[in-house]
């Protein structure tokens, strides 16, 4: 009996061929995030938690181990003492680092972070002047110095975070009025100085990413609001693992929102604008007028309050209370599940956190927590810009940097 040859299988369409690498990248991201959240974790558990097949998990884990992102734990786990041992996987913190740069008004923070977002080293570089090229060049030199001290580590890239209007896609600081920066090509300048991939974003958005990846309260929330209160006051909002950027990444600009009860004159000609009222410059001026300290570092006000200075404690509570009014205004519009606040009083003093929560109803107050990174918030902001890119597309890691 003659057998007829089966017709040849049709070649995959161009769209199917394009979709296959996308699926691989999505699956690799899913596996790496599972290891980040649950590691050390067995491959079988990764398959169960992600819904991927055991074969697919094994393949992706091999890729991630080869890239230096994941390692096998030294001590295997046995299931009931029989069968082959399970070698749990964890994020590899020993080989690779990212650089973090945070540009603030009085200084730049440079840091090295491991792949779990833990700060390994950091330096604060005061600004002799705020000319953009010189600020970024000093940041690159500071990073190079930190890297020279850990020759066994390899840098994957650099994240830069700053306040004001930062365009993530273009890699530019579009407008930072307190520094006088306009359309600064920060990514281009830092990449030329470091020779590394550079990613740029606003610090409030970077800290939402940090909370989502490494933090405590917001990791399991479907929506998160972050309020950053420094010299620059801005906000970020994330839903379902995505931070909202808006056209040209302009979302989060809240400096001139009117704050109920605010009296501080603003450069825009009005009084009571959010940033004018809550700025560290305002806190510092009020501290100087009260004879508390020189007012150049808000932590000095915190220290004075801790030493028993009643006016220092009152200034901090009042600032936190006004921040609570800002939270109330924003949550009325966005209704997030979790609210994270980065503000010096809220971070260091329970009475300030209570003052902020006191501006909210009981249900909303329970959703508000301080930042998960009280001792390294600026370093984490910079590094998380690069780490977010890594965890979204781990297959983009260049083997040359391993």
């Amino acid at each position: 009996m003659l057998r007829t040859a089966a017709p040849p299988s049709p070649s995959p369409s161009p769209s199917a061929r394009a979709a296959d690498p996308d699926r691989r990248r999505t699956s690799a991201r899913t596996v790496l995030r599972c290891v980040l959240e649950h590691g050390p974790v067995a491959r079988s558990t990764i398959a169960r938690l992600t819904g991927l097949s055991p074969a697919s998990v094994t393949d992706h884990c091999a890729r991630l181990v080869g890239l230096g992102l994941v390692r096998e734990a030294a001590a295997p786990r046995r299931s009931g003492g029989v069968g082959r041992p399970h070698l749990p996987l964890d994020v590899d913190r020993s080989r690779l680092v990212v650089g973090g740069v945070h540009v603030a008004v009085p200084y730049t923070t440079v840091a090295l972070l491991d792949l779990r977002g833990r700060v390994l080293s950091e330096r604060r570089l005061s600004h002799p002047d705020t000319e953009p090229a010189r600020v970024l060049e000093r940041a690159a030199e500071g990073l190079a110095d930190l890297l020279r001290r850990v020759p066994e580590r390899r840098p994957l890239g650099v994240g830069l975070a700053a306040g004001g209007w930062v365009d993530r896609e273009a890699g530019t600081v579009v407008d930072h009025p307190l520094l006088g920066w306009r359309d600064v090509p920060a990514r281009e300048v830092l990449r030329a100085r470091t020779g590394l991939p550079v990613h740029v974003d606003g610090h409030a958005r970077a800290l939402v990413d940090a909370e989502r990846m490494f933090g405590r309260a917001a990791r399991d929330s479907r929506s998160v609001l972050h309020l950053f209160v420094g010299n620059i006051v801005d906000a970020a909002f994330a839903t379902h693992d995505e931070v909202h950027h808006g056209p040209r990444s302009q979302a989060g600009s809240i400096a001139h929102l009117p704050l109920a009860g605010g009296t501080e004159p603003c450069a825009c000609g009005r009084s009571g604008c959010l940033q004018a009222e809550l700025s560290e410059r305002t806190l510092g001026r009020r501290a100087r007028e009260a004879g508390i300290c020189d007012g150049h570092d808000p932590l000095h006000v915190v220290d004075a309050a801790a030493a028993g200075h009643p006016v220092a404690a009152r200034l901090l509570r009042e600032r936190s209370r006004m921040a609570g009014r800002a939270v109330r205004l924003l949550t009325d519009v966005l209704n997030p599940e979790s609210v994270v606040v980065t503000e010096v009083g809220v971070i260091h003093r329970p009475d300030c956190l209570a003052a902020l929560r006191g501006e909210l109803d009981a249900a909303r107050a329970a959703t508000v927590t301080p930042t998960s990174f009280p001792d390294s918030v600026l370093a984490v902001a910079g590094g998380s810009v690069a780490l977010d890119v890594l965890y979204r597309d781990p297959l983009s890691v260049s083997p040359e940097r391993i």
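Residues 205 and 236 are 5 Å apart (CA to CA). The mean pLDDT is 91.
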